[in-house]
Amino acid sequence: MATEYLEHKLALLPDRPGCYLMKDINAKIIYVGKAKNLKHRVRSYFKSSHEGKTAKLVSEIRDFETIITSTDKEAFLLEITLIQKHQPYFNIKLKKGTGYPYIKITNERDPQMMITGQVKKDGGYYFGPYPNVYAAEGTLHFLQKVYPLRRCKGNLGRPCLYYHMGQCLGACFQEVPVATYDRQIAKIKSFLNGNVSSVKKSLQQKMATASKNLKFERAAELRDQVHYIEQTVEKQKIISHDHTPRDLFNYYVDKGWISIQVFFIRQARLMKREKRIFPCINTPEEELASFILQFYNRKNNVLPREILVPQAVDRSTLAQILHVPLRTPQRGQKRDLLQMAQENAKLVLLEKFRLMELDNRQTVEAQKQIFAALDLPYGHVIESFDHSHIQGMDPVSAMVSFVDGKPQKSNYRKYKIKNELEEHNGADEAANTREVIYRRYSRLLKEKKPLPDLILMDGGLIELRVVLDVLHNELGIHIPVAGMVKDNHHNTSHLIVGEQGLNVPLDPKSEGFYLLQRIQDEVHRFVISYHRKTHSKNALSSQLESIKGVGPKTRIKLLKNYGSVRKIKEAPVEDLMKLGVSQTVAQTIKLSLSTTPIRKIGS
């Protein structure tokens, strides 16, 4: 049910294409969508019944804004830009890079083959993606033996080792004709596009000839190459006969979630599969279209020559944006493969539901209990801070992030305390708190990144008051803050809030209290492990400083290669000398450290 304020805004919506941005009670953008008709689409959120994640989204909407575009294509592109900029909680979001390896043929006078994860517009030929780097390496090594290009740096003035092994055309000592490279590259592309039968037949003939001429080592090498084709290429089921590189997308929707399957078809075979699960807010076809655009908007991704999608997807608009034809097969193997992708998507989603049933009570429901105890509307992101030092030495801080009750380790942060003011030292918890809170949230404001829904401080009233002062008076922002207080046994006791440190009632036997313990234990573990590492390095550096003949460059080399006193003590003098340390200094280091007891760094 829309509020009076939202009803007035709904009445002003235009019958135009564009994008809409849904906001929560804190004016944070929680969902971005596109529509051919903004008036019909946005009104449907408040005038229709919903379930699952859509119902949850609608319950959190307190405001919205719209951006009108001239065409559906512009709305598509604007939606992807806004999602990448604001990273809304309810949207499908993909990482910027694919992380997949490709085989590349460079665009040079003397081209070479290599494995790369960086796809650039440099005129090179990229083939992939491969399921992992080992699969790419296997294919690369095969091609370098059968269809060699250049393996060395070139212009060496003498034949390189690879030339003698038959894996280099000789750019090291002679000018290789461009036509020779072109013939090799044509054969490589033919093989990578699935034409392997001719290669296998040629290798078998060469193997027979080598065996007949009593060249058994060469015959064995050729036999291994044939074996590679049989085990890694022919063993895979052929699913196409036109050798067109294509990607296939299909989905399955249930209970407000969409499961998406992506099949990569290369060499006429299913090379790789990718699976993703997201909350489904709009129609599944629109969610899939948004996913496809983000999928190909990532770095290091090579577009195929054809994309296969289900019938209801807006193929024409996507084709205009991607400049690749999108088709829906009606019969044959491609249609069967599309159906198989949907069946796989269904199986993955059903498995997800089983795991969610087990996990939900300890995560989302537990986090809801914490927000309810604090009398706050439910928020998705909690950030927690803790400090560590030894009598003020090597002070550090750390932050952990929990999203819907689960640790989000990619958002964890470490901080070395600077304490630039002379009257402060590393043991001043208030100064440490002030510094790290200001650094964290001034940066989020500067970079226009979303703020958390709750901050939990590992500490008492002093830290709590410092955080409130920094947020309100220095940064001008209002984020709910609570302090996690421990008892005499260093166990989680209770929460406090406000300038007076009021006690927050939370049942010690509830899932919310257990989540609070997990957050406090996790931030303590994270900061202690970081402090041990920092203190250990600083202690080692100071020990090395006292050794005669060990300067800054030598210390850096030793720290980088060994990292601890024990490892340096155990290293032979010869290994130290390999780092560029003279024999006299290496012996001095060993002698000095052997007379110094190794101290264990405690918490």
Automatic annotation (TrEMBL):
Keywords attached to this entry: Cytoplasm, DNA damage, DNA excision, DNA repair, Excision nuclease, SOS response
Chain ranges of the GIY-YIG domain: 15-92
GO BP term, pick one: SOS response
Molecular-function GO term, any one: DNA binding
Residues in UVR domain copies: 197-232
Cellular-component GO terms for this entry: cytoplasm; excinuclease repair complex
Gene3D superfamilies hit by this protein: 5' to 3' exonuclease, C-terminal subdomain, GIY-YIG endonuclease, UVR domain, UvrC, RNAse H endonuclease domain
Compartment(s) of residence: Cytoplasm
Signal peptide interval: none
Residue span, UvrC family homology region profile domain: 248-471
Domain of life: Bacteria
Chief localisation class: cytoplasm
Record has Nuclease as a keyword: no
Function recorded in the entry: The UvrABC repair system catalyzes the recognition and processing of DNA lesions. UvrC both incises the 5' and 3' sides of the lesion. The N-terminal half is responsible for the 3' incision and the C-terminal half is responsible for the 5' incision.
HAMAP family tied to this protein: UvrC (MF_00203)
Family membership noted in the UniProt record: Belongs to the UvrC family.
Protein's name according to its UniProt entry: UvrABC system protein C
Protein source organism: Bombilactobacillus mellis
